[in-house]
Amino acid sequence: MKAVVYHGQEDMRVENVADPGLQHSEDVLVRVEKTAICGSDLHLWHSEPFADPGFVVGHEFLGTIEDVGKDVRGVSKGDRVIVSCTNGCGRCPACKRGVFSGCPVATEEFTHGNIFGFGSHLNGGQAEAVRVPFGDANCFHLPDELEDEDCLFLTDILPTGYMGAEMANVGPGDTVVVFGCGPVGTFAQMSARLRGAARVIAVDLDAGRLARAEARGCIGINPREEDVLERVLELTHGEGAHASIEAVGRPELVTQAAMATRPGGVVSVIGVILQPFQIEWALFLSKNLSLRTGLVNPQAYVDRLIPLIQEGQLDPAQIVSHRYSLDDAVEGYETFAGHRDDVLKVVLSA
Description:
alpha/beta
């Protein structure tokens, strides 16, 4: 089959690889129809080479089930499904609490990760097919009336954005600052509105992305043109925001978020920060701020978000700016990584 394979920094290749097959009785085999390039995939693109190159990348994908193991009960061959980006067993105490990302079974006691496409232990979905362990826990049926692009982002970034607003305790009448107008930031902005925020302030350096946010009703701030803290204080009569959401993955923005948040507020970090960094703890302590973060658990959100899409309260497909075939995935990576052609989200058809 064809797949996008990681070989090192800025070195993704579309190659022919062995077809996946069932390895365990709870496995599911999915024929991929749509997949996407996530901002966290760009960590692979930009980072120093992984120790085990040669794995298939991608963790946002949907398709049709081709085969199931003998112990799979909840899904069947021919079902149209999305697959959670984080893989959990569904039975351990962590999974039962909804923290599938912390599953000790799927990670083999945390000896490796459980996100598709970040190492050879779990090949990803930027491919024609993918093996999904623990299929009953990680595959979700899709309503027939919804299009693929309505559902694709339920795999990761839509639940991530909603989780960011939920962790921030966003409620009716709140003012929320969202750092980042990329795909995750966009969904955090939409989710803050859904949860009743009266004012969403969007911060980004990309003029095109900022314009999109303003068209959705956000107040845009470009840090190159005005001071973020001064503008937030101006908009909130000197109090600061009720909550701030960091959706980029830059350590310095965590501090900026804390500065922009009023005493007793919440800073929610959903951007992927991989390197160690120093937290300005005195700032959090003196302002009585709460700091919340974590990896997304789509399994805990899919059933809550699908009705919002069905009823038109969420329109995930609006973020798609570029579409490519799987054969042209490298061009998709180059476009997304280079912020070319006003890109926001790249979708690949397998």
